[in-house]
């Protein structure tokens, strides 16, 4: 795991020599010193940490992949000195910027939330980092059980989560905001342009908006291709290729050693997002591979699940589309096949401790097998659905804009999505009525309704399957998450109080569809960050261009009337590829993979049900008062037998329990020095919550 950490103190000058370095992060590289020091911690590549300096008190550090030149960084630094923070976020790539102007420090979070910033009061000042756990260690924080309850009950509701983290006293900077520190005092400010509440923002023509998405995606991919090539350095004799092994080629031997291939690669699942990135990376000028890899060909990796019986026709169609796309002469195709050992919920015993809990913990072993066969720089299509697709609540936005005729195609497509039924003729009217009700519901009323649903345990309308049910449930300002039904009444009451307090505050700006779409993107970006940490392969970097600032901004410019059309994401990406010169796509390109994912999850439940039940024999979640163990065990057995239950909710429960166990079993701390904290974070363990 890689992170940066620093603090802003109340000191007026450098600390005395004998006291200046009494607290240090373990394995850190000092970028600048007291009184407001900054460190880079972890296995950062040399090109991932860049520092430009205008004078002794004006400098800028950029962490991650940034497409700006040194001159552009200096221009951004001068702009930030005058208060124009947006200049620090306008370059292509995915990065965190830290600007120091005298005693003023500015740390920017990204728009999606994949590169978050955390902060906490410490030693009379404020400490900040791009990971929450080091700050929790620094202040010896305990667990925030209320935040864990909100994360399970309403995972995509900013009103319930607030700016908190699983650690008491550690706070998150919201996406689209920057942390500004002056002499130890912190302030969080937005760097996004303020929209007028009186006049709706003008929308770009669809063709111009799609062109903007294409330019942003191409520039995001080009920025990664322009970076230096990295390869795993042999670590003694264990890192050397053992030579010919019967039945194993160089790629298989490398994967067995746990090292990625040199150069650039991409996922190639047959879907539209990963396929778009693979084709763009293969078609742009540059050298994806190296002489030690596959020359100028980009390494495309496809995962073949041999253990899942359900959804086989869809999986076979995905594989066929991947093979067709891989016929491109600049692609080198590798298919990674696996059986039951790669199903979700397999190999839960061993795994890294992530900064926060996330559903990726139950599928980490499955994805790591695919990524081990990938490249040192590997593209993934995460975030495409959240930035391109229309959240169902956007139907209410269309009604607010008096664009009723644009609802005809999406509601008709919903009526056909679940197949013919006795009630299919009523679906368009039902969806329209739900959208109209949401358009007429104020923000405060919507949040208060969600709070009452939690208190009354009204989860009957949670989607158990089907596009219509899912869309109807999503047509709200806020709704309980899939795991809420298994939480205790005490936990639900605490989350309900959080929502009720949010409902009493001043109404937030924005329309329901826009706010729900941003919240869904933030939740997905946080899950992607956990995914990166859970599947981490040494010397490998995962790149998700759809979560870059410039791509997110370009996708936000897409008009709602274009978003809500059936197949809008595939149509936009097809236009992106067409503008880049790729027009020959396989039949069925753009089909979704929900069925194959659900079939794999259910197969994994059936295979690992014994281990999962034992995991909840004496769960830490029950000790914290969040669940009852017998209720979760019953739900796991029922889901393994085929009962219609929210599988995503069970995955969240299992992953949170796993994360708690790994946190409790952790040894050591992130800090060293004579004045370093003597205890690690949550050293006291999980304690039951008192009754309300």
Strand order of the largest sheet: 3-4-1-10-9-11
Largest sheet features: 6 strands, antiparallel
What spatial form do the alpha-carbon principal axes imply?
Answer: globular
Strand residue content: 15-25%
Low-confidence stretches: 15-20, 234-239, 290-294
Mean pLDDT: 86
Helix fraction, binned, reads 25-40%
Describe, in plain words, how this protein is organized in 3D.
- The protein is α+β, with helices and mostly antiparallel strands.
- It is 39% helix and 15% strand.
- It is built from 24 helices and 19 strands.
- It has a six-stranded antiparallel sheet, covered by helices on one side. A six-stranded antiparallel sheet has the order 5-6-7-8-12-13. Strands 16-15-14-17-18 form a five-stranded parallel sheet, with helices on both faces.
- Strand 9 and strand 10 (125-129) form a beta hairpin.
- The longest helix has 23 residues, at 512-534.
Features:
24 helices, 6-stranded antiparallel β-sheet, 39% helix, 692 residues, alpha+beta, globular
Set out the fold topology.
Elements lengths: L2 E6 L15 E2 L2 E5 L5 E4 L7 E7 L2 E9 L3 H12 L11 E9 L2 E5 L9 E5 L2 E5 L2 H7 L6 H9 L4 H4 L9 E2 L4 E6 L2 E6 L15 H20 L24 H8 L3 E7 L4 H12 L14 E8 L6 H14 L5 E8 L25 H9 L2 E5 L4 H5 L5 H7 L7 H10 L9 H13 L3 H14 L10 H8 L14 H16 L7 H23 L6 E3 L5 H8 L3 H4 L4 H12 L14 H22 L4 H4 L5 H12 L6 H18 L6 E2 L20
Parallel strand pairs: 14-15, 14-17, 15-16, 17-18
Antiparallel strand pairs: 1-4, 1-10, 2-19, 3-4, 5-6, 6-7, 7-8, 8-12, 9-10, 9-11, 12-13
Helix pairs in contact: 3-16, 5-18, 5-20, 7-20, 11-13, 11-17, 12-13, 14-16, 21-23, 21-24
């Amino acid at each position: 795991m890689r992170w940066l950490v620093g603090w802003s103190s109340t000191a007026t000058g450098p600390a005395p020599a004998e006291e200046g370095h009494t607290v240090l992060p373990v394995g850190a590289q000092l970028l600048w010193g007291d009184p407001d020091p900054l460190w880079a911690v972890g296995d950062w590549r040399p090109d991932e940490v860049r520092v430009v300096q205008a004078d002794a008190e004006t400098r800028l550090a950029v962490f991650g992949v940034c497409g700006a030149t040194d001159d552009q960084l200096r221009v951004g630094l001068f702009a930030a000195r005058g208060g124009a923070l947006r200049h620090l976020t306008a370059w292509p790539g995915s990065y965190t910027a830290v600007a120091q102007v005298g005693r003023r420090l500015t740390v920017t979070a990204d728009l999606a939330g994949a590169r978050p910033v955390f902060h906490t009061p410490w030693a009379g000042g404020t400490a900040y980092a791009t990971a929450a756990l080091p700050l929790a260690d620094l202040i010896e924080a305990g667990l925030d059980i209320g935040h864990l309850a909100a994360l399970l009950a309403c995972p995509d509701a900013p009103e319930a989560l607030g700016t908190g983290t699983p650690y008491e006293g550690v706070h998150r900077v919201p996406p689209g905001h920057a942390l500004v520190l002056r002499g130890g005092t912190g302030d969080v400010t937005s760097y996004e342009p303020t929209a007028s509440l009186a006049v709706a923002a003008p929308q770009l023509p669809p063709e111009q908006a799609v062109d903007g998405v294409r330019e942003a995606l191409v520039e995001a991919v080009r920025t990664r291709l322009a970076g230096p090539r990295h390869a795993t350095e042999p670590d003694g004799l264990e890192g050397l290729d053992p030579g010919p092994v019967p039945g194993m080629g160089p790629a298989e031997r490398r994967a067995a050693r746990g090292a990625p291939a040199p150069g650039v690669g991409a996922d190639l699942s047959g879907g539209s997002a990963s396929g778009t990135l693979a084709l763009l990376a293969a078609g742009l000028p540059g050298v994806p591979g190296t002489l030690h890899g596959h020359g100028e060909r980009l390494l495309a990796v496809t995962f073949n699940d041999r253990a899942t019986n359900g959804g086989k026709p869809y999986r076979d169609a995905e594989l066929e589309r991947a093979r067709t796309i891989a016929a491109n002469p600049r692609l080198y195709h590798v298919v990674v096949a696996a059986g039951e050992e790669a199903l979700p919920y397999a190999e839960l015993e061993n795994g890294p401790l992530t900064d926060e809990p996330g559903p990726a913990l139950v599928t980490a072993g499955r994805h790591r097998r695919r990524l081990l066969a990938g490249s040192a720089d590997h593209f993934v299509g995460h975030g495409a659905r959240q930035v391109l697709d229309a959240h169902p609540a956007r139907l209410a936005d269309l009604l607010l804009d008096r664009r009723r005729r644009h609802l005809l195609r999406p509601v008709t497509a919903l009526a056909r999505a679940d197949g013919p039924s006795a009630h299919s003729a009523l679906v368009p009217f039902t969806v329209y009525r739900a959208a109209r009700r949401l358009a007429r519901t104020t923000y405060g009323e919507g949040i208060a309704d969600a709070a009452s649903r939690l208190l009354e345990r009204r989860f009957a309308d949670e989607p158990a399957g089907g596009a219509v049910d899912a869309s109807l449930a999503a047509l709200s300002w806020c709704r309980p998450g899939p795991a809420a039904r298994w939480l205790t009444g005490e936990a639900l009451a605490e989350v309900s109080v959080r929502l009720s307090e949010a409902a009493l505050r001043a109404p937030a700006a924005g329309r329901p569809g826009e706010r729900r779409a941003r919240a869904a993107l933030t939740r997905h970006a946080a899950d992607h960050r956990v995914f990166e940490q859970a599947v981490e392969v040494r010397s490998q970097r995962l790149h998700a261009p759809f979560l870059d600032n410039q791509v997110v901004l370009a996708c936000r410019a897409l008009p709602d009337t274009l978003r809500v059309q059936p197949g809008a994401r595939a149509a936009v990406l097809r236009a992106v590829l067409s503008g880049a010169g790729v027009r020959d796509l396989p039949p069925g390109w753009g089909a979704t993979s929900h069925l194959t994912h659900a079939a794999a999850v259910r197969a994994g439940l059936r295979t690992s049900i014994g281990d999962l039940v034992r995991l909840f024999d004496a769960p830490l979640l029950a000790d914290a008062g969040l669940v009852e163990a017998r209720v979760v065990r019953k739900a796991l057995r029922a889901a393994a037998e085929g009962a219609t239950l929210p599988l995503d909710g069970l995955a969240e429960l299992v992953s949170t329990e796993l994360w708690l166990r790994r946190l409790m079993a952790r040894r050591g701390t992130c800090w060293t020095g004579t004045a370093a904290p003597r205890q690690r974070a949550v050293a006291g363990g999980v304690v039951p919550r008192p009754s309300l």
